[in-house]
Amino acid sequence: MDKIIVEGGKQLKGAVRISGAKNAVLPVLAATLLTRGRNIIQGVPKVRDVATMIKLLEDLGVEVESYHNEKIILDTSRADNPEAPYDLVSTMRASCLVLGPLLARLGEARVSLPGGCAIGERPIDLHIKGLEAMGAKITLEHGYVQGKADYLKGIKFYFDTVSVTGTANLLMAAVLAEGETILENAAKEPEVVFLADILNLAGAKISGHGTDIIAIEGTTSLKPIECTIFPDRIETGTFMIAAAITQGDVTIENCIPKHVEPISLKLQEAQVGVEISKNKIRVKSKGPISCVNAKTHPYPGFPTDIQAQFMALMTLAQGQSIIVETVFENRFMHVSELKRMGADISLDGHTAIINGVKSLSGAPLMATDLRASASLVLAALAAKGSSIISRVYHIDRGYVGIEKKLSKLGAQIRRIK
Ligand code: UD1
């Protein structure tokens, strides 16, 4: 298994280019199942979760006509297998995104239940409840969600909890359902808005996306999808924090500043310089980092996917900061590893209390989930001495060549096999 070795203490300087958004491309790939023909998707980030989703689509009968230079052409004409097997779904929860499209396309789906993960139980009860309301008969057998539907009908559905993939799943099912669907308390994440926009380009009739209430007028067929994936806001935020934590000066290119506004504002509050232009952000140290509180919320709130990285920064801030996680029940797996580096953090339920320390020291570290591993890389960049991070397959799920991008900025970081 690969490991990442970081020699801390180098200030990052230069420019970095952000890749396409993982969480945008995954639902778009699933949505190709709603079409029959050649789908052309550009700006596809080369990360492990995307490879898993492509493998899953191939299992379902989708043909990968070509895939190079971030461009994939998928022929969905002959996708007729309704089963998403355990070995793929177990490595990536987002595989459940094929549930709605398969039911809409084949009237049948057999998708392994994702199960728990390092950041909590993460049920898909809302996905299932919504699809049942649309007329699907769903049973749970042998660890699989089995769905059958002669046809899907439009519904009015209220999400008890804002769910990103839940909204995407029901949205995709509703596009080919009979009649109108209204999704209330829907997710407003840019990835959901993008999905709705590209489905509309393919012939869907969706309105209200980007607000709490999305309306979908069902249609009988869609044209194949053609789109370019927008830049990843979590990768953007991670590099912004990398610049801040190393007291560096980094220009983040090919990003959408609007998508990372809460992160920019929090960094400014922490006395880090943030200059924003059209599709670039320059993050420049202005001296010591001030303590700042943060609370995670669905978009446009402070993203839970940046909580761990922001906490790494706060371990080196002057004073005490409080970080509250409201989206997931168990997303503090990085805390014990940061403490092994000398961070002063105590946990009280969903709240982390961080007393800034003067320095962190490099240590052998274990990545536990995707964003937790990013926080460890950031802490290691700022720490004194060297750190060895193992289980980096977690980080490869969502970051394109993170060690290469960081090393171009001057970090002393390398991967060993
Ligand atoms: C997506 C993102 C993930 C991000 C998360 C929150 C993708 C592929 N992944 O995950 O990176 O961290 O949004 O921004 O886009 N919930 C239920 N029942 C459900 C569904 C969700 O109770 O049926 C709860 C979850 O346990 C969690 C909360 O809702 O507490 C939000 O989860 P959700 O938005 O669904 O996360 P994902 O879509 O899995």
The number of distinct structural domains comes to 2
Question: Oligomerization state of this entry?
Answer: single chain
- Name the beta content range: 25-35%
Name the bound molecules.
Answer: uridine-diphosphate-N-acetylglucosamine
The name CATH uses for the topology of the largest domain is UDP-n-acetylglucosamine1-carboxyvinyl-transferase, Chain
Number of strands: 24
CATH class of the largest domain: Alpha Beta
Structural class comes to alpha/beta
CATH architecture of the largest domain: Alpha-beta prism
Which radius of gyration do the C-alpha atoms yield?
21 Å
Biggest pleated sheet: 4 strands, mixed
CATH superfamily of the largest domain: Enolpyruvate transferase domain
Q: Order of strands in the sheet with the most strands?
A: 22-23-1-24
Q: What is the residue-averaged pLDDT?
A: 95
- The helix content, as a percent range, equals 25-40%
How many helices? The count is 14
Globular, elongated, flat, extended or rod-shaped: what is the shape?
elongated
Report, as a whole number of angstroms, the end-to-end distance. Answer: 6 Å
Q: How does this model look, in words?
A:
The protein is built from 14 helices and 24 strands. It has helices spanning 22-31, 48-59, 86-89, 99-106, 125-133, 164-175, 190-201, 233-245, 261-269, 307-314, 333-340, 370-382, 393-396, 402-408, and strands at residues 3-7, 13-17, 38-42, 63-68, 71-75, 83-84, 108-112, 137-141, 144-148, 156-158, 180-184, 205-207, 214-217, 226-228, 249-253, 272-276, 280-285, 294-295, 320-324, 344-348, 351-355, 364-366, 386-390, 412-416. The protein has 417 residues and is an alpha/beta fold. The N and C termini lie close together (6 Å). Helix 1 packs parallel to helix 7, helix 4 (99-106) packs parallel to helix 6 (164-175) and helix 6 runs parallel beside helix 7. It is 31% helix and 26% strand.
